[in-house]
Amino acid sequence: MSSGFVLSWIDYSVMIIYFAFVLGIGWALKRYMKDASAFLEAGRSMPAWVAGLAFISTNLGALEVMGMTGSGLKYGMLTTHFYWIGAIPAMVFLAMFMMPFYYGSKARSVPEYLKLRYDEKTRGLNAILFAIMTILASGISMYALAILMEKVLGWNFHLSLVLSAAIVLGYTYLGGLSSAIYNEVLQFFIIVVGLLPIVFLSLKDVGGWHGLQQSLAPIVSSKGFAPDAWTTTWKYTGSAAANPMGVEWYGIFAGLGFVLSFGYWCTNFLIVQRAMSAKSTTAARNTPLIGAIPKMFIPFLIIVPGIVALVLLNNPAKGFTLPLNEAGQPIYDYTIIMLLKQYLPAGVLGLGITALLASFMSGMAGNVSAFNTVWTYDIYQSYIRPTTSDKASDDRHYLFIGRMATIFGVLVSIAAAYLASLFGNIMDFLQTIFSMVNAPLFAVIFLGMFWKRATGHAAFAGLLSGFFIALVHHGLTFPAGADTIVKGGWIAHLHAYPVEMAQNFWTAIFACFTSTLVTVVISFMTTQKKPDSELKGLVYALTPKLNEESVVWYRRSSTLAILVLLLVSILTILFW
Amino acid sequence: MGLDIKLPIGLMFTIFGILLTVYGFVTRLDTININLWSGAGMLVFGIIMLALTFK
Asked: What is the pLDDT of residue A317?
């Protein structure tokens, strides 16, 4: 692919200034890293707005930005389901019902909550799967960054890989989780500022939103869909054939809106860790709610330009093209890159490229900082070197281990990136497999928080059975047109889904249902060994309700939650 | 954690704002002047963040 990107001195200046600030933040925080808690938990001192923006920035990795712009081109506004029904209800649920337990239990990680609520084996299983998953994700993100730099800017693949790893290692080693969180806030602003000119210029180019709708109508009609199929969200979900995503409303509602989103937003420690770093229970509850506000407007930043790209592609006079892969198919993930090239002159182009680099690095740093916490607390401290009576010595030791885990995490990520370059499909497959643990994990944690009868043996069996059913479902089904077993059907071809997304939704639904059923049945067959006194602060019915009367009304989580739900309802109605 | 994150955000965007505003102005005849407008926007944002930091 030859994209013809040429960066000037001002573009490089913007990049250098940005990375100087990123490393500077790590350096400024170094002197505060006096113990393991400061390094791995940010000392539980973050204000809600900082934790909230970091919460959303962690999720705003470059694979997300590039993938969702490409999805905007392919599916139109239907892609916003990942941001509205597929995120906001779960974030509100996490804030209102789950954060009081995660935060109030003093658990330092999601696996540790499982240990407190259930037992050691359930924690161990989750910790090991999570540690592997984060390193895989970090490595794949690193690989994607290096390949992008090579293809778009002509930079050397190995140099890009090592340089990006060195920057991430630099600021996470120096400032730990605090540095990762502060930089995620910085990255959030740079991503917004770097991509805003694209939104403005691309919409202006097609005559605004109204002009976009008019330009889309003949293009979309020629594909066999209604003229407004690309600019509506629910209108054509009555039938899978009537919308470009190929899914029905109940698949979106149950698969994405419930199982997948709750599994991701409520139990993924990478995300929840940001809220657990907040300075109080109220701040921890407000973290996902504050994050939800920018989350619901991100589609206008990355999906709308993707929809504009569809119009540009169908108008030869605009000179807009997408690079082709070896099979001659357009690479949709490169839509945002080609839009940068189409609209941005030197100067803001450097800002746009920096925004993409920032989003890659926020994904990597988030994974590495979550990995070092789980490794230090849930694996090393639990199974290799437990705490002693000398707290000061322990603190120094675990701080050292946390730092070593950061180096180890980055080095293994580099190895994973090289594996991805050699065996890309295998890495994709592994990531798909490990991501299947989210839905059963949500079922187990949900039952643990709201049903005191759920037992440790049942939770362990529930996690394993849900994971197993997800694997079997993936192995027996495949999306239509799939040409590789990475997409499923590696046991037998029992059922074909119209699109991969539908297969993902149903994999999650089956896994969550199985996990719930097994956990409930085995709980009734086993004895609850933990007395009520031990479950206080871990189970809803046994925990005193939070009283927000001392908090001014507009800072209450309940007020913020109502505002968030109201906003997302208005957006949903506007783009119905 | 000792560091007010508004300070680096304010400083960085003020620097970006000045850089892009000046660049946009200098290159204004080189065939929306997006650098000028983006730079001005960032400059305002950066100054607001710095003001909040020192308030």
From this structure: 85
